[in-house]
């Protein structure tokens, strides 16, 4: 059996386990303060290293604007509480945020923030949107941990 099938079976087992014991908690932390691109400290906050922030539409736009000034990669995880694959990849997304402190990680609940999901043409969950310099540079649909990690490493 090749590694792809093993990974798929593992994810299916995790999904069954998640469905029987309940969803993983949502990871939210207060964002740390980031220096402004214009030298004004604490104007905009953005999460860094190990922090995954559940973001509103205003939070997303502020983080993109802030990160765009210094070409920092922003990864947005479009998720939903009812989405099994979203819940399965949540701890991996959290771990990636700890491994890549130079990347801004956001999470948008599509049910609570449908306008942001529509703005980024999200039609399936999970969808990861990669933004650099204020522009969408790539997107990944589906819970594929290996590809997600590759894309973060390639784009940052």
UniProtKB/TrEMBL annotation:
Q: Which PROSITE patterns match?
A: THIOREDOXIN_1, THIOREDOXIN_2
Every Thioredoxin domain range: 18-156
InterPro entries from the entry? Thioredoxin-like_sf (IPR036249), Thioredoxin_CS (IPR017937), Thioredoxin_domain (IPR013766)
- On whether Disulfide bond is a keyword of this UniProt record, the answer is yes
Q: Where is the signal peptide?
A: 1-19
Highest taxon in the source lineage: Eukaryota
Listed SUPFAM superfamilies: Thioredoxin-like (SSF52833)
Question: Which of UniProt's keywords are assigned here?
Answer: Disulfide bond, Signal
> Could you identify this protein by its name?
Thioredoxin H-type
The source organism is Seminavis robusta
